[in-house]
Amino acid sequence: MLFRCSTFANAGGEDIHSSSKTPSGFFAGTVNTDPRFGTFNVVAGNQHITYVNHDASQSDQILATLKPVKRGGYYVSQCMKGTREDIFKNIDQWLDDVDAPNVLWLSGSPGAGKSTIASSLVSRLTRCHRLGSSFFFRKGDITLSDPAALWRTVAYDLAKCDPIFAKNLVQVLEQRVVDPGQPDVASHFQYLIREPLAESYDDSPSRTIPVILVDALDECDSDHSQAAQWKVLLDTLTQWSHLSRTFKLIVTGRDERVPKSLRAVCKQISLPTGVDVSADANNDIRHFFEERFAELEGSSSSQWPGNKFSMP
Predict the structure, then answer these.
(1) Is the pLDDT of residue 261 over 50?
(2) What is the pLDDT of residue 257?
(3) Count of domains forming the chain
(4) What pTM does this model have?
(5) How close are the terminal C-alpha atoms of the chain, in Å?
(6) Both 237 and 296 in a single domain?
């Protein structure tokens, strides 16, 4: 519940509102205390105070001005159960390490599995109540490749999952220090993300702070039509590293579109391909084919393809 309070001198005239019952305690001297009203007045001496109650519907209307991107129609398949366990273990350790860099950069060439890992991370973080927001950039999609869409969508997601963040964000939007309708990426980050985060979670235990995940950063502004905003977005991602190390951000993408200045402030996990594939990755590939062949044959993987199946 939010209250806005304004005071002004009572001119001495009789208040036009009345109540058949006399409230007591905090509400002594008040009128319009019926909870159906959005406001109630307190008259104390020569001070007339108006309280405004922001109910859920009002807050939702204010948050709707962020115009978050709808992502329900875009789904990325997850990793097969039992695969990529070494990657997930590495990420889990980083999430719990408050001394590590607060940005994780997961990189690899096309087809290395970055997005499937990201999709699996969304489910894992959701199950342990740590996901704050996930945003999957998508090449060729006018909204899912827009640099200006990221932070206002992330802010909306955080507000929907945490009432404290929502309260702080609504206050920012009411003050009109930032216009979500303008493609001002720097202001979006400063006022919709950085300041509300610090205000909401300043002394919170690290495991209670929501994690943000951004996938396929290289597919943002893929046609280079918004080059200026793209550069500002990269700068805000670097600025994230200056926040508390308990504020964790996971970003996936290809190295070639990301400057070294950003990679330098991140913990990096690379997904090798080709001859550089690790033994763990080879085992995952074998497991994948065994499971798929078993589905085709309609029997367990131990029966088919059996010893005839081999990998280099």
Answers:
(1) yes
(2) 84
(3) 3
(4) 0.74
(5) 63
(6) no
Tell me the CA distances in angstroms from 19 to 15, 30, 33, 34, 286, one per residue in order: 11, 9, 9, 10, 77
- pLDDT > 90? residue 103: yes
Which residues form the domain of 124? 58-276
Alpha helices in the chain (DSSP H): 56-63, 85-95, 114-127, 150-161, 163-175, 185-187, 195-201, 227-240, 260-263, 279-297
In this structure, what token pair is assigned to residue 261? 């200045």
Contacts of 34 by beta carbon, 8 Å cutoff, 6+ apart:
40
Q: How confident is the model at residue 312 (pLDDT cuts 50, 70, 90)?
A: low
Asked if residue 216 and residue 95 are part of one domain, the reply reads: yes
> Could you tell me if 100 and 137 lie in one domain?
yes
Q: How far apart are CA 117 and CA 183, in angstroms?
A: 30
Tens digits of residue pLDDT in 1-37: 443 333 333 333 333 333 334 444 544 544 444 443 3
Please state, in angstroms and as integers, the Cα–Cα distance from residue 56 to each residue in 53, 72, 156, 161, 170, following that order. Answer: 10, 23, 14, 13, 11
- Do the beta carbons of residue 133 and residue 212 sit within 8 Å? yes
Q: How many angstroms separate the CA atoms of 271 and 282, rounded?
A: 12
Q: Scanning the structure block, which residue is given the tokens 């802010």?
A: 155
**Shared-domain flag, residues 89 and 209:** yes
Q: Are residues 295 and 264 in the same domain?
A: no
